[in-house]
Design brief:
With about 800 residues, the chain is of the alpha+beta class. It folds into three domains: about 55-265, no CATH class; about 270-325 and about 375-445 and about 675-805, no CATH class; about 470-655, no CATH class. The protein is built from 24 helices and 22 strands. The strands form three sheets. It has a six-stranded mixed beta barrel. β3 (about 90-105) and β4 form a beta hairpin. The protein is globular.
């Protein structure tokens, strides 16, 4: 221990003697360790930490599947679930839930929309979490005619009810019905996703026919010692028996058991996160290569010292440990500053995703596991950056060093190894810059996309009509008619409409048949996006129908069923001939839906989301159908955000219990929808920028040191007739050769990185030639600059001074 402390003190003195070199080394390691810790914190909080319950690995999601139809996740009916529950042998507890918005109102405040979950009492028992106040609902309250009760989340209790201690027993209105609050769940509980209100499910299998009722999500807690594979085999047997007993409803239907957290973060997202973690490991390796080169240079300068210490009796192990402890001291400084960098990064990341309502179990912070990884990264940095200089110093020929008067020709000289490290840095940088470039292009594409209208002048908000108050289509249409009338009277609105979906948002697809076409199977039917709108929908977005007409007030129940399709739909299904007058029918081959006559063709407006490349869509009059969840679309004369209070007042005048949500200008709403491009794009840009900086500094350091060690050679060359241009070219060729090899090797690496990122690229090809060309230009320019400065210094060498100094 005393020897180690002595080496550490000596290493610290050496670091202070060369503050510039040491600062560069610490900065490089700070980037490597800090970014590695940041990315692991994100992965640990999102993928590894898991549910904040006792034995979280025992809680699994249970899906039905139909592999013949390519469906990996299908909801379960209450009848199938009860059959599972009776026959299974591997679960301590099984439960089902369904998610639904909850409109909460009372006498003390404005209505509020909560994210609600309808759950059986067994769902709470499966999680093992008890209410902070009150109780969960009972089996009697679970019945369709049971008392109306609810539990609220800790945040709702704090913010809406002021943490009132008498909250239990208070009566509020939930979806228009008087409901009693019976419990408050603990802080941080948001099961199953990011929910803050829980109501009884009220699904009774005895009161409905098999196959009817809502589709539910099932989960359970495994018995102690039971694996996911065993539960899978158990339920597969049960599912096979159900399929035999009820072939009409369950033919080819299987089951899949998986960890609960996979319900939110799928395989593509996991691949991207691990890819990004791999990327920061490469940043760390680049930093280590940088520091290794710096320590190699320092070892060369200290070659006389190494020789003297060895001659005085120091063992090779002593010499190696001296260099390793110096590397460790640098790595510890990098750990300290890198941890601070990671802390700020985690804070910024959490702020960026706060508005997206991430699952409650995603908990990203710097705690024991990320700090352990940070320390591991520090030890890796110590070995990766210090081992090579230590071994080179320990193996040096003492006699050669002591006899050599010029330092530059000793056995410690920098050569192929340093150049190989620089080329490795360049290669890794190309891969990281490829990822950064592709993400930059994605973000640019997202922000410059042409919607076909000015989205900043379109105000939008959503609302949902509760079935208890708006039980039939007539009641819902009356609300829509009243709301349209009130919106037209709001000052500042040019035009207002209502639709079930918005441009740039993902809508549901519907199968349909073209009149005159024959289809052998339902799977042969074409599909297109389908939405309901009121007559002024296109006007409110600021677009005109291209041919035919838009909907009118006469397109109501009892009139001719009509539709408007997009230009892409017309091109795709009618071979660019006019779609006006043609007919389509929604549903399968046996559908009894009426034939819809196409009366107009509208522009393509990203009906299936901003990454939609097809644009085929069907619009139908809202007055000829039935909807309870829709969006208000208002075209404004001024600021879209300024209309919010007036639109809330218009809705409240019709129904004071209806809350609005997802409010804002359409461009802001879309920005929230596609937040991940900006967040993960910024991370990869940071990785690429760090890699470029480190690689260029590494190349500059090696070239500058090489020139300083070859001053005598430069002097001899000039004395023999070489001019400044010759020396300039000599140094540049050396540096650019390393850059060229790094570019070639890095391109293969970059292609692999780009394929892994394909899932989160926005309208950008993984092998985008523009991105790869830009990388070559940036790296060559950076490398040229890094080589030019030392090359200029070499070209200005005075031959007499160089020869005399040696």
């Amino acid at each position: 221990m005393e020897s180690l402390l002595r080496d550490l003190r000596y290493g610290a003195r050496m670091i202070r003697k060369t503050p510039g070199t040491s600062l560069v080394a610490v900065l490089a390691l700070s980037f490597g360790i800090g970014l590695t810790t940041l990315m692991f914190s994100i992965i640990y909080g999102a993928l590894i930490r898991g549910l904040p319950f006792d034995e979280p690995q025992e809680i699994v999601l249970i899906d039905r599947t139909n592999l013949q139809q390519g469906r990996n996740s299908i909801g379960v009916s209450i009848h199938d679930f009860e059959d599972w529950q009776v026959a299974q042998r591997t679960f301590d507890e099984m439960a089902v839930f369904s998610t639904s918005a909850v409109n909460l109102s009372d006498e003390d405040g404005s209505p509020e929309r909560l994210d609600g979950a309808l759950m059986t009492p067994s769902a709470f028992r499966a999680t093992g979490v008890q209410p902070l106040l009150g109780r969960i609902h009972t089996d009697e309250e679970e019945q369709p005619d049971g008392a109306r009760v609810m539990l609220v989340g800790w945040g709702v209790w704090q913010q809406r009810f002021g943490a009132a201690p008498d909250i239990i027993g208070r009566t509020v209105r939930v979806n228009g019905e008087a409901t009693t609050i019976i419990g408050v769940m603990p802080r941080g509980f948001g099961f199953p996703n990011a929910h803050n209100a829980w109501l009884p499910l009220r699904e009774d299998a005895d009161r409905i026919q098999r196959g009817e009722g809502r589709w539910l999500r099932a989960f359970g807690r495994l018995r102690d010692g039971t694996t996911v594979a065993q539960a899978q085999a158990d339920l597969e047997q049960v599912a096979a028996r159900i399929a035999r007993d009820h072939p009409a409803l369950n033919e080819s239907v299987g089951v899949r058991v998986r960890p609960f957290t996979e319900s939110t973060i799928g395989s593509e997202e996991r691949t991207v996160l691990w890819t990004m973690f791999g990327a920061v490991i490469f940043v760390l390796l680049i930093a280590c290569a940088n520091v290794a080169n710096l320590l190699l240079a320092r070892a060369l300068i200290r070659s006389k010292e190494v020789g003297v210490r060895t001659a005085l009796g120091a063992s090779r192990l002593n010499v190696a440990m001296q260099f390793l402890t110096e590397s460790f001291a640098l790595a510890l400084a990098g750990l300290a500053t890198g941890t601070v960098l990671a802390w700020f990064g985690v804070r910024m990341f959490n702020n960026a995703i706060a508005g997206t309502r991430p699952p409650f179990w995603i908990d990203i912070r710097i705690d024991a596991a990320p700090l352990l990884v940070a320390f591991g990264a520090t030890m890796l940095a110590t070995l990766a950056s210090g081992a090579i200089p230590a071994l080179r110093a320990a193996r040096a020929n003492t006699q050669e060093i002591l006899k050599d008067e010029s330092r530059g020709s000793s056995s410690l000289r920098m050569g192929r190894l340093s150049r190989a490290l620089v080329m490795a840095e360049m290669a890794l940088s190309v891969g990281l810059l490829a990822g950064a470039g592709l993400m930059i292009r994605s973000v640019v594409q997202l922000h410059t996309i042409d919607m076909g209208f000015d989205a900043s002048r379109v105000y939008t908000t959503r609302l949902q009509l509760p079935a208890t108050q708006y039980a039939d289509a007539e009641a819902r249409q009356r609300f829509v008619d009243q709301l349209e009338l009130r919106l037209t009277g709001v000052q500042g609105i040019e035009s207002a409409a209502i639709g079930t979906a918005l441009p740039g948002m993902s809508w549901g697809e519907t199968s349909f048949a073209l009149e005159g076409e024959a289809y052998m199977e339902d799977r042969d039917l074409p599909v297109a996006v389908n939405t309901l709108v009121t007559p002024d929908y296109f006007t409110s977005l600021g677009v005109d129908v291209l041919s035919g007409r838009a909907f009118t007030a006469q397109d109501r129940m009892g009139a001719l069923p009509v539709a408007v399709v997009t230009r892409a739909f017309e091109r795709r299904f009618f071979d660019n001939t006019s779609a006006v007058g043609r007919r389509i029918r929604l549903g399968g081959r046996d559908s009894e839906a009426p034939w819809l006559t196409i009366v107009g063709v509208a522009p393509d407006m990203f009906a299936a989301g901003l990454d939609d490349t097809d644009h085929s869509a069907i619009y139908r009059p809202m007055a000829q159908s039935n909807a309870n969840n829709f969006a208000i679309v208002a075209r404004t004369r001024g600021s879209a955000e300024a209309l919010a209070p007036a639109i809330r007042a218009a809705v409240s005048a019709i129904d004071p219990d209806l809350p609005l949500y997802s409010e804002g200008s359409l461009d802001r709403v879309l920005e929230r929808q596609y937040w991940f491009y900006g967040v993960f794009g910024a991370l990869f840009i940071a990785f690429g920028a760090a890699a470029l900086f480190l690689a260029s500094v590494g190349l500059y350091g090696v070239m500058a040191f090489s020139v300083s060690q070859r001053r005598r050679e430069m002097g001899v060359r000039m004395a023999m007739g070489a001019n400044a241009h010759d020396l300039l070219g000599l140094v540049l060729r050396q540096g650019m050769t390393q850059t060229a090899v790094g570019l070639v090797l890095g391109t293969a690496f970059a292609l692999g990185v780009s394929r892994l990122l394909a899932a989160i690229l926005f309208q950008v090809e993984p092998r985008d030639p523009a991105v790869f060309a830009a990388i070559v230009v940036v790296l060559v320019a950076t490398a040229t600059l890094a080589c030019w400065i030392p090359a200029r210094r070499a070209a200005r060498v005075d031959p007499l001074e160089a020869l005399r100094s040696e």
